[in-house]
Write a structure and sequence with these properties.
This protein has one domain. It is 57% helix and 4% strand. The chain is built from 5 helices and 2 strands; from the N terminus they run H-H-H-E-E-H-H. A two-stranded antiparallel ribbon has the order 1-2. It starts with 12 loop residues before the first helix and ends in a 6-residue tail after the last helix.
Length: 103
């Protein structure tokens, strides 16, 4: 297995498409990890967080790369609530420094 040199980097759309093709071909997880040069936990997390579940059409339950990209970007947007709001950011960081939980 090639050395995995990078720290955690989000999957790009091309990597998601590669993962989708590999999941459809059904090789072993060890082969997927080797081909993508990602940690096992990263692959499992990506599939778990972005697997599409459809109760009305169970045949559509699978990993869809475009849906995964959308779900991932939605999660990242939620984590960036304070960006662009300098006053709110300053208030929250000051409360953290004071040992308080901002509510």
């Amino acid at each position: 297995m090639p050395a995995i040199k990078r720290s955690f980097v989000h999957f790009c759309l091309e990597e998601r498409r590669t993962l989708d093709h590999l999941l459809q071909a059904k090789p072993s997880m060890a082969n997927i990890i080797w081909i993508m040069s990602r940690y096992r936990s990263t692959i499992y997390r990506e599939v778990r967080q972005n697997w599409w579940h459809d109760k009305e059409v169970p045949q559509a339950d699978r990993y869809w790369p475009l849906t995964a990209e959308s779900l991932s970007s939605d999660r990242r947007a939620c984590q960036q609530k304070l960006i662009g709001k300098a006053a709110l950011f300053a208030a929250v960081t000051n409360q953290f420094r004071a040992g308080q939980s901002p509510k």
